[in-house]
Write a sequence for this structure.
């Protein structure tokens, strides 16, 4: 099965994933950030961190 590679833009952990499409998301196993696939070129992922808004529960 072919795989794609990339690096987390936050912690620089090397990632290897099964085939993904642009726009799909994944989590970094090291820092647990949610990352979006911005592009794929020659089997290398271009990843961007997604800003996660936490809910304000009024506490």
């Amino acid at each position: 099965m072919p795989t794609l590679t990339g690096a987390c833009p936050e912690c620089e952990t090397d990632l290897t994933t099964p085939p993904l499409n642009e726009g799909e998301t994944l989590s970094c196993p090291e820092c647990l950030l949610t990352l979006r696939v911005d592009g794929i070129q020659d089997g290398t992922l271009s990843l961007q961190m997604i800003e996660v808004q936490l809910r304000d529960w009024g506490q």
Summary: The chain has no helices and five strands.
